[in-house]
Fold this sequence. Notes:
Layout: H1 18-30, H2 37-50, E1 54-58, H3 61-72, E2 79-82, H4 88-96, E3 100-103, H5 115-124, E4 129-131, H6 142-149, E5 155-157, E6 165-166, E7 169-170, E8 177-181, E9 194-198, H7 201-210, H8 244-275, E10 281-282, E11 297-301, H9 309-319, H10 335-341, H11 349-355, E12 358-361, H12 369-385
Parallel strand pairs: 2-3, 2-4, 5-8
Antiparallel strand pairs: 1-9, 6-7, 8-9, 10-11, 11-12
Helix pairs in contact: 1-8, 2-8, 3-4, 3-7, 5-6
Amino acid sequence: MAKVRDRFLPFALPDTDEAEVTAVADVIRSGWLTTGTQVRAFEAAFATLVGAKHAIAVNSCTAAMHLALESLGVKPGDKVLTTPYTFAATAEVIRYMGADPLFVDVRADTLNLDMAAVATALKKHHVAAIIPVHIAGEPCEMDALREIAGDIPIVEDAAHALPTRLGDRMIGNLSRFTCFSFYATKTLSTGEGGMITTNDDAAADRCRIMSLHGISRDAWKRYTAEGSWAYEIIAPGYKYNMTDMAAALGLVQLGKLDAMWRRRVEIAQRYDAAFGGRSELELPTRNAANQHAWHLYMLRVDNAKVRGGRDVFAEEMKKRNIGISVHFIPLHLHPYYKETYGYKPEAFPTATREFRREVSLPIYSKMTDADVEDVIAAVLDVLEHHHAA
Length: 389
């Protein structure tokens, strides 16, 4: 085995510097740490970026999706259509409402929802909502989905999709709700955080109220000069609000978003050039008419051409001090969903098959050119030493 690097290259790192440190320190010095003016400024800037009328900052994308479903009135016994090829949060928010996820298989190329499968499912089932996921940052076929869905509300899981464009349209203003993630590994990070965008005034009001205990006014203003101690609880809400510290970080990150995204594009292009001729690998699918966010660079390994297949490939990369990940173990393969709904691997054959081939390489704006070259060298070295005869 060739030695690639002495120090481990993490799979993901946030791109922060002294600007973020200063912004957060200023909030701490102000004495106002929780939801306040920084959150409102972050919401306004984000709404402008994606072209939405409203943006509601929360403490995770999970919270954002939960609030969206709550505002739609999803109830126990309802079905919500989504993909099994996603992280836990997408389906668990459906279960929070007492509803059941109606999984539909994915396309083999993009790993996004298969529109033919969606259409078939909707002929057989009544659903309260649809949650598409823009895997890795490649947008779903939203125009086709809206046509198939008709009046069914759509809640986009855009955890990977900043700054994704469908043609020239920014993800964030195409559906009833769009939910973003600002987790530490994402293209914009507040450590933990999320955002709901919507053009629906009543829905925005409901999400904002329910994000902070169901209190009918801006609860954070109770402790300001213009605030009042009096408030009313209109529903049993949640504790999903974002802090001013997180929002201050987010505002700085927004100013860097384009540069950080462009660096991810550069890295993706270098990987494409290095691996495009390798028959053992399939490059990530992207539609040239869209703007890919490059949250993830998802390779597919030809398990017949690499000894030990994807699993050995992944282990060998780690031995070469390169952090990798796999996205995702499909939800129907996890014990909870197997035991609750009786799913078997063949229930969603494309999701199952492609998961067994997928491996994600590091792609983040903090990577140096030397880091990128180390990843490339490690991949090529693994292929050289593990090529199946």
